[in-house]
Every structure is written in structure tokens, then in C-alpha cells.
Amino acid sequence: MCTFVSTRGRMRRRIQMQPGHGEPTPGQLLYYYAVLAQQMDEAEDITEWAEIHGKDLSAHGTVSDFNQGVADRRDLEIVLGPDTFDALLTGLAISQAIEAARPR
Questions:
Q1: Is 35 helix (H, G, I), strand (E, B) or coil?
Q2: What is residue 16's three-state secondary structure?
Q3: pTM
Q4: Is pLDDT above 90 for 95?
Q5: How many domains does the chain have?
């Protein structure tokens, strides 16, 4: 069980790791949910989200996956607060841009 708590709220999620992987660090969990929030922000709605991520809207679990992503994004913003949440996503985008610009 993973729990993020602040004076603003609480975010509690069940995390299942693949066999052979240890427990995630708090930083890894924060990174995971920040990337998820970033992905949710890429789309205007479920249709666009499904298209971006190659999901079939009629497939079992697609709508619940989308709704969970929306809830995860919302809860992370509540726990961190809007300013810290925005700074986290901005920093993530900058880090990704720098990594993408590095010569291979």
C-alpha cells in the first residue's frame, strides 16, 4: 500500500510490483504518479486519451483505467498543492526535454 499524506489531503493506492522487483522508493512512486498526471494532461477527454495511448474504448477496463488516471492526477495535486504540483510537472517536462536533446 502506498500513501502520500500532507496537510491538504491523502492519496492511498495499492501498488503491485512485478516479481523480482523490490518495494519502490517514495521518489519512484512520486515520479510514477507525476508521469501519469502528465499523460492525463495530454488529452482533452477519454476519446483523445484512448487514441494517444492505443486503447480501445470498447475494451474491458479502458474507461476504468481512464477514470483511475483522472483520480490519481486529482489526488496528487490535492496532496502536493497546486503550486508544488505545477512545479513538479514543469520540472518533469524540462528533465524529459533535456534527456531527449542529449546526443545518442
A1: helix
A2: coil
A3: 0.84
A4: yes
A5: 1
